[in-house]
Amino acid sequence: MPQPANPAILNAHQLRQCAGVVCVALGGEDLFTQAQAAVQTAKFVEFRLDSLADPAAALPTLRSFLAEHPDITAIATCRRAAYGGSFNGTAAQQLEILNQASNSGCLLVDIEIETAEELGQAALDELRSAGTAVIVSWHDFAATPPLQPVIDRMQPFAPDFLKLVPTAQTLRDSLQVIDLLENYSGENLVAMSMGFRGVLTRVLGPRFGSVFTFAAPDGAAGTAPGQPSLTMLRDLYRIQNITAKTAIYAVAGEPITGSMSPRMHNTAFAAAGIDAVYLPLETSDPAELQQVMQRLDIRGLSITMPLKETVLPLLAMRDPAVEHMAACNTLLRRADGSLAGFNTDVSGIVEPLQRITPLAGKRVLVLGAGGAARAAVYGLVEAGAHVFILNRTESKAATLAAETGATVQTRSAMATADFDIIVNGTPYGMRGQQYDPPILPVEMDCRIFFDLVYNPVETPLVRVAMERNIRVLPGVAMFVEQGVRQFTLWTNTPAPEGEMLRAVMDALQ
Ligand code: NAP
């Protein structure tokens, strides 16, 4: 039988009071160097002792570190290799290390359910008798099975905290964790999902009842896939301010691991003093997206590839650009729950150009005939420009030209052509890509060049244009402009454009 509660043991309320909701997970041979850096700004850390070659030998260092930092709340973990850790000793040796870590000042220890079952209740009671809170943990490094049976398996140990960490293969897997947190009747559950599709559980977990969540130390990889850094959780997602009233926004598409949108929009919400958080939701399934939107009461979404067309059947209202282009990059959830769709890519291209020059009557060459080029052609034709399309696959240029009233530009006629403006709507110049250029340097004959590629800021075509003294608009101008429009549609307030631009430029450095 488990022992009665020891009043010296931290409960969830006390833990949140003294340590907050973010625990920095430290792992690797430089554990104590990481710890020194982390405690400059964090009060709650986990020592993954199993990540050291000789955990027992590190205990004196742990003791002196915690003696020097009495305001730090620490978890000791020494997970065995068979259960996803790196410790190669026996269960008894693990218990001995955890006991010593507790005597060294760790107020919590983490013991995996498999080892707890092997050692039995007496081992947990031994740890607790010293006033240490015992977290019984369970991990699934591949999937998210039904979670209630895991809770049922842990309950007989009456742990001080239960920690469940499955892997989210889908966003629906993450919703299982959210449901578990919300339906759990106690106050001692810690739960989150590993993987990029689990990020939403790491950011929203405490808001749905998780006692705390984990962060990777700044500048280190972290101890689990998908773990955001301390700076991201605290300064970008502002996790400590997220409550049930916080409005949730997100970017959805696949892949989106490199998306700058969370940086830009979270910065914007903070700068505008709006109680909102913006998440990355990786999915290519509109039905899954709709389910997540409803479950989390998401107010608005940025939509990226490959969802721009497939979300159209979800829309109760479409703006004229969505209607015309059959592509949507912005969703707004209206008060009655219905979805309105907008395309802010078009204004993202047209507005920055119009701030430089009127477009009516201008000769504009658009390179490419994909999604970005399509938004450019549509917007520029609407603005009264004479638009020419040059594309690698000429038939696609012809189709787009026929739809929009633009003209096909042939390669052979490039030598004698001149334009007021050239817009690059191909991926040429994107970081990490090796392509042949869609246009030769001598063919860059224009007054303004707008490269829609935004990473890097200075693309090869931007360099050619600068060498030829052509005025340049970089792709960030489009990225920020379309984001400014989204922000205003969602919040009905002016967007802090300067801060948004700075956030994107900082990330692109
Ligand atoms: P997409 O739909 O795949 O279209 C790509 C277009 O580029 C196609 O017409 C393709 O020609 C052409 N193309 C691809 N590789 C080429 C090459 N090596 N030489 C010549 N033409 C080539 O892509 P997208 O969504 O339009 O995106 C295009 C670029 O725009 C991306 O790099 C992206 O970074 C940028 N973009 C920027 C923003 C922003 O906010 N700044 C927003 C959206 C997109 P074929 O028809 O022959 O295949």
How would you describe this structure to a colleague?
- The chain has three domains: 12-243, Aldolase class I (TIM Barrel, Alpha-Beta Barrel), CATH 3.20.20; 249-343, 3-Layer(aba) Sandwich (Rossmann fold); 347-473, Rossmann fold, CATH 3.40.50.720.
- Helices cover 38% and strands 18% of the residues.
- The protein has helices at residues 12-19, 31-38, 59-68, 91-103, 113-119, 121-129, 148-154, 171-183, 199-208, 230-236, 261-272, 286-296, 307-310, 320-325, 345-354, 371-382, 394-404, 460-467, 475-491, 497-508, and strands spanning 22-26, 44-48, 73-77, 108-112, 133-139, 161-165, 189-191, 213-215, 247-253, 276-282, 298-303, 317-318, 330-333, 339-342, 363-367, 386-390, 407-408, 421-424, 448-451, 471-473.
- Helix 11 runs antiparallel to helix 20 and helix 15 crosses helix 19.
- The chain is elongated and about 85 Å long.
- It starts with 11 loop residues before the first helix and ends with a helix.
- NADP nicotinamide-adenine-dinucleotide phosphate (NAP) is lined by residues 348, 368-373, 391-393, 396, 425-428, 430, 435-436, 438, 452-454, 475, 478-479, 482.
